[in-house]
Amino acid sequence: MMRSLSTLSLAALLLSVGGFCSAADLSIAPSDSGAVIKIGDQVFAEYVTGGGGSNMPYLWPIYGPGQKSMTRAYPMRTVEGEQHDHPHHRGLCFGHEDIAGTDTWAEEATFAEQMKGKNADKAKERLAHLGEIKHRAFEKMESDGKTATLIALSDYLDHAGKKQLEERRTMIFSLDGDARIIDVDIELIASEGPVVSADKKDAGLSIRVPTSMAVDTGLGGRLINSEGQTDKDAWAKRAKWCDYSGPVDGETVGVAMLNHPASFRYPTYWHARTYGLFTANPFGLHSLNDNEPDGAVTIEPAQPLRLFHRFYFHRGTEKDADIEAAWKAYSVIEKP
């Protein structure tokens, strides 16, 4: 009888271990919104191609260690107690206030309140230049269980719908222990002829963290960069990485954005805000630092502008997760 129980226990253990291994497999598949990435049967992230008032594709939701939500839900979903500002801060996204004279940073809802007040004229001007990053196709959607790769192709359209340039966005999803990783490589391709990327504060690759993590909510959130500058002092500084950590559902978690040495204008400037946004912005020079020259750059045909970043979702603070070591591991990966 004892031997039988031992055998049954061993079988149960093997099934349990097998189930754990299976649950750790990464998968990717088409979804109603675009594409969904899962770890076993749990959602890791979803790529949304657009719609719902958005003029850009974005990743939302994103779940970190312990299946903690790592992005604010607004404006995709209304959650009581969340901040309801900057509706264009959708999960993990990319935009620019002025490429070829077109604004893909903001969206129409951005100016709803301004249109009613003293800034109505400025809002009307911005609206007249509002464009769209329009999803065209998925070039690749595959997983080997350890990583999942999604390559999305998009067209940048002006207010009248005229194509101005193309984007190729490669997203690679992977795991590092219980940490979760999203590599985002962006190529801006001057397919229609040379285009000018203006020097703007509102530009770059962004993530909007949950309200409970935001420094300004006073619940323990902290913003820190690789140079040791924290909170408001991290804004408009160059750094090789930036980390936002704070409480989510009773546990401290964080997300670091790592800037690769091969990325345009490394180390990048950071448009990092204590209300919950942080953005790697290599496009803004003078707009972020009065001592810098104008940072406008012309993107030439056959010479794509390339940006390389890694999002590292972790437990604890940047020290707990050893983000400096994570950046070093990322920095030696070869990039084109």
Topology:
Elements: H1 2-23, E1 26-30, E2 34-39, E3 42-48, E4 58-62, E5 92-96, H2 120-128, E6 132-143, E7 148-157, E8 163-176, E9 179-189, E10 195-197, E11 203-208, E12 222-225, E13 241-248, E14 251-259, E15 269-272, E16 277-281, E17 297-299, E18 305-315, H3 323-331
Antiparallel strand pairs: 1-2, 2-3, 3-4, 4-5, 5-11, 6-7, 7-8, 8-9, 9-18, 10-17, 11-16, 12-13, 13-14, 14-18, 15-16
Distinctive features:
336 residues, mainly beta, Beta-galactosidase, Chain A, domain 5, eight-stranded antiparallel beta sheet, 18 strands, 12% helix
Structure in a nutshell:
With 336 residues, this protein is mainly β.
Task: Please tell me about this protein's structure.
It is a single chain. This protein is mainly beta and 336 residues long. It has one domain: Beta-galactosidase, Chain A, domain 5 (Distorted Sandwich), CATH 2.70.98. It is built from three helices and 18 strands. It has an eight-stranded antiparallel beta sheet with strand order 1-2-3-4-5-11-16-15, with no helix packed on it. An eight-stranded antiparallel beta sheet has the order 6-7-8-9-18-14-13-12, with helices on one face. The radius of gyration is 21 Å and the shape is globular.
Order of helices and strands: HEEEEEHEEEEEEEEEEEEEH
How far do the termini sit from each other?
Answer: 63 Å
Under CATH, the topology can be stated as: Beta-galactosidase, Chain A, domain 5
User: What global shape is seen?
Assistant: globular
The low-confidence runs, each spanning 5 or more residues with pLDDT under 50, are 1-23
Q: Over all CA atoms, what is the radius of gyration?
A: 21 Å
Walk across the major sheet and give the strand order.
1-2-3-4-5-11-16-15
Structural class: mainly beta
What is the beta-strand fraction?
A: 35-45%
State the domain count: 1
Largest sheet: 8 strands, antiparallel
CATH class: Mainly Beta
SS field, number of helical segments: 3
Mean pLDDT: 93
Counting DSSP E segments of at least 2 residues, the number of strands comes to 18
Helix content: 10-25%
CATH architecture: Distorted Sandwich
